[in-house]
Design brief:
It is built from one helix and three strands; from the N terminus they run βββα. It has about 70 residues and is mainly beta.
Length: about 70
């Protein structure tokens, strides 16, 4: 896991797209195992990604809309 002092993390809902996560984060599976250590990631918001929790662009194919 990442060490050091906590930094600001910003999560932005992209119009008609995924959540953009910016900042040093650990993304964990439901069982607590580390999936990815990253400073920028895009997380699925439409529910159709084959790579959940990450966005794979399926929102475009599915016509997902949300502010």
């Amino acid at each position: 896991t990442m060490t050091g002092s906590p930094s600001k993390i910003t999560i932005t809902s992209l119009t008609d797209g995924p959540y953009e996560v910016v900042g040093e984060v650990d993304i964990l599976a439901a069982d607590g195992t580390l999936v990815k250590e990253t400073s920028k990631s895009y997380l699925c918001r439409c529910g159709h990604s084959a790579k959940k929790p990450f966005c794979d662009g399926a929102h475009k194919r599915e016509g997902f809309t949300a502010p």
